[in-house]
Every structure is written in C-alpha cells, then in structure tokens.
Fold:
Amino acid sequence: MKTALVIGGSRGIGRKIALRLATDGYDIVATCRKDIAALDPLKSEVGNLGRKFNGLVFDIQDRKAAADALTGFFGESAPDIFVYNAGISRDNLMVFMTPGEWDDVVHTNLDGFYNTIHPLLFQMIARKSGRIIVIASASGQVGQPGQVNYSASKAALIGVVKALAKEVGKKGILVNAVAPGFIETDMTADLPIDKILPMIPLKRAGSPEEVAGVVSFLCGSDSTYIHGQVIAINGGLVI
Ligand code: NAI
Structure:
C-alpha cells in the first residue's frame, strides 16, 4: 500500500489534504506540533475510509526532533507522497516587525521544509519515485503588505520547488507547489473578509477541499508531466 505523509495534518488545509489522499487510496502519516490528540479526528476519519493512519508529533522548527521522528517511523523506507503543508503567519508591517515574528515565520515555513524533507529525500531518490507537494501561497507569488516575513518564506518555498525539481526529476520524483489565495481556515479566521472579497473575482473565499483536490490531482496519474510548477488556487486573486 502506498503512503502519503502530510506535514501539518491536524487541521485546516492539511487535514483535508490527508482525507482526500486517504480517499484516493493512500495510507496516511500526519504530523502535528504538540499534542497527538489533535490528530484523533483525522485518525478516525481515515480509519473510516479503510486506510491506515499514523500520527507523529514534533515541532518542525526542531531539526533533531523532526529527523528523529521521521527516520524513527520510516526507517530505510520513505513516503510515496510528501506534502509540506505546515505554515504560520505573524503579520505586521515591516517597520514594526519584531525579531520573533520574523524568525518564527521563516524558521517554521522555510527551515521546516529542510528539516522534514532532508531525513527522507535520500530514500525517495533511491526508490526513484515519489511526489513532493509544497503548499506555498499567493503572498509568495506577488508579495503582500503586512506579510513581508510570510511572503518571503513562501517565495522561498517556490524557489525550493523550482530548484529541487531540477535536481530530482531525473530520479522520478515530481516536485510541485500549490499557491492558495484566501482559504477559510483558522489561519484566516481573524482577517477582514469584507475588505478581501472585493479583490477576488469569484467573490468568495476558497475551501480547504478545493486545495486538497488540486493536491490530489498533482499526486495522481493525470499529472505525470507537471513538474516544478506553481498551481494557483485563488479564485482569480492573482492573475
Ligand atoms: P492552520 O493554521 O489551520 O494549520 C497549520 C498547520 O501547520 C497545523 O496543522 C499546525 O499544526 C501546523 N504547524 C504550524 N507550525 C508548526 C510547527 N512549528 N511544527 C509543526 N507543525 C506546525 O493553517 P491553514 O490555513 O490550514 O494553512 C495550511 C498551509 O496553507 C500553511 O502553510 C499556510 O501558510 C498555507 N496557506 C494558507 C492560506 C489560507 O488562506 N488559509 C493561503 C495560502 C497558503
């Protein structure tokens, strides 16, 4: 049975990606930051779909904890699908941005990718197959005021995808990013939706399921020649 690993699967977009991939037939390994109980609802939903579920707990900023958890679970094997979904925002105008706001976002969103893919990449390369999907953001494509830290981290992830695609394509690993716009989750719950909707041609927020559907496509058999790309999911926010 094939396995999909979702980094940051306890809620929001990551949880829906895990569920969609379970529906597609993958066994699921999902991670969360602090409390394994946060994965309980996903565990039972994946079980109801007849797929195996395993949860791992570690802070993706913690390089050693990430490596210990991932190599401890996968050993000499590797997931067939690696979805890097975990991410945070700490919005502030650059002039007021604290060192903590900068560091937290960059260390989570960007360093967390290194910390979680690096323990697994050699085995993926050795197996000569796999998919790596990174959840970037429209903010990383165009830049967003009040989000210099977040935009920088997500633009960096887009660079990661383009460069890594050139390294591992010949090894049979497809690497792509999706760039969601405004998706209704806990992360966006406090944002002023009335000010944002006028900027979106479809005049509505997106749902986590709409992101999960594109990730499913990028993991499936209809996307085998899509590589090193950034697929926008934003209702026309960025055209
Ligand atoms: P969320 O806040 O609901 O979920 C974030 C996930 O990341 C959680 O599972 C959390 O446990 C995990 N996480 C965060 N920091 C972590 C850490 N240090 N260690 C381990 N896990 C950590 O957010 P949402 O909205 O579901 O976002 C998911 C991804 O999509 C993020 O990368 C976000 O930047 C991106 N995104 C979200 C958009 C939106 O409108 N909601 C728009 C564009 C991108």
In short: The two ends are 39 Å apart (CA to CA). The pocket of NAI is lined by residues 8, 10-14, 32-33, 59-61, 85-88, 108, 135, 137, 180, 182-183, 185-188 (CB under 6 Å). Residues 99-127 form the longest helix (29 residues).
